[in-house]
Amino acid sequence: MLHSVKNGLFIILAILIVGVLGGGFLASAQENQLDCTLPAGQPETIAAAKLFIEYMASDGDLGVHGYFDDHGWSELCVYDPTGTLVLAVKPQSQLRDLTMAGVGFESREPVLAELPFDDLKARFPAGDYTVIGTNHDGTGLTGAALFTHAIPAAPVITAPMLTDEDNIANQVLPVENMVVTWDDVTTTYDGQPVTIVGYEVIITNMDDDHTHGFARPIYDVHLPADRNSLTVPAEFFQSGRRYEIEVVAIEESGNQTINNGYFTAQ
Q1: Phi then psi for 74, rounded to 5 degrees?
Q2: Is there a domain that residue 9 lies in?
Q3: Predicted confidence (pLDDT) per residue in 43-102, tens digit
Q4: Are 20 and 142 found together in one domain?
Q5: In Å, how far from its chain's centre is CA 70?
Q6: Distance CA 218, CA 216 (A)
Q7: Total of domains in the chain
Q8: What's the Cα-to-Cα distance from 177 to each of 38, 180, 201, rounded to whole Å?
Q9: Three-class SS string for 238-250?
């Protein structure tokens, strides 16, 4: 499965990241000598702080995504509702002098057999995840990212007729006036009420990757929650290329569930 590059997410180079997922991927903050302290004075509120669950229904995997953005900071820490440090970022050397405006991440996404829903919920308690940092000018930076356990059910793609990746060469479809349609999502994955605030449709050219930049052809559209179809311009497609279509249901706290399928353009 191809994961599209989300708007505003950044490649993280030459920085220290400390993360905890269950037992923890790296050493503790104390061992890495990074546990952010708020500088004296009136802090600013971070411009964007997002933390959410992504469930890839068609692959049966689950992970946590985050995005923290502002004008420029030299260190940033995120604490869960119990006060446990779950993320610490500190640019180094020349990048430390320049500071960072934003950072985005995706955790590893284990299959449900390895990380069931209940295990993720236990490891990541719901609530406000507190952000503490230091701005480029030495002032403080604070905020919070709301994190919930409301994971949408999978959007069912009703058109076009897609296949799995193994059979993509045999599913050749006309692309003139292609319309992607899906059923409305009205519940969570476990049947509870859910508030969907929008859908996202991502169509990715699987054959034209570019190692050193983001030039892969991707058609990515966010739609209001009351829509369940999207007409795709024929100009986007190339004959004979393989494509992945993803439909994403986005819940009001940011949690999102993806369903996908594949085809080859006629």
Answers
A1: -100, -15
A2: no
A3: 999 999 999 999 999 999 999 999 999 999 999 999 999 999 999 999 999 998 899 998
A4: yes
A5: 18
A6: 6
A7: 2
A8: 55, 10, 16
A9: CCCCEEEEEEEEE
Q: Please indicate, yes or no, if residue 203 is contained in any of the structural domains.
A: yes
For residue 117, the model assigns a pLDDT of 97
Query: Does a structural domain hold residue 179?
Result: yes
Q: Using CA atoms, how far apart are residues 178 and 137, in angstroms rounded to an integer? A: 51
The residue range of the domain holding 206 is 157-265
The DSSP secondary structure of the chain, one letter per residue, reads: -PPPPPTT-----SEEEEE-STT-SS--TTTTT----PPSSPPEEPSEEEEEEEEETTTTEEEEEEEEEEEEEEEEEEE-TTS-EEEEEEE-HHHHHH-EEEEEEE----BTTTS-HHHHHHHS-SEEEEEEEEETTS-EEEEEEEE---PBPPPPEEES--B-GGGGGG-EE--TTEEEEEPPP-BBTTS-B--EEEEEEEEEESS---TTSS-S-EEEEEEETT--EEEE-GGG--TT-EEEEEEEEEETTS-EEEEEEEEEE-
Question: pTM for this structure?
Answer: 0.86
In the Cβ-directed half-sphere of 264, how many Cα atoms lie within 13 Å? Answer: 11
pLDDT tier, 211 (very low <50, low <70, confident <90, very high otherwise): confident
Whole-angstrom Cα Rg for the chain = 20
pLDDT the model gives residue 143: 97
Q: Cα dist. 119→57, 65, 260 in Å?
A: 17, 16, 25
| Percentage of the residues of the chain whose pLDDT score is greater than 90 | 83
CA angle in degrees (0–180, nearest 5) for 161-162-163:
135
- pLDDT of 3 above 90: no
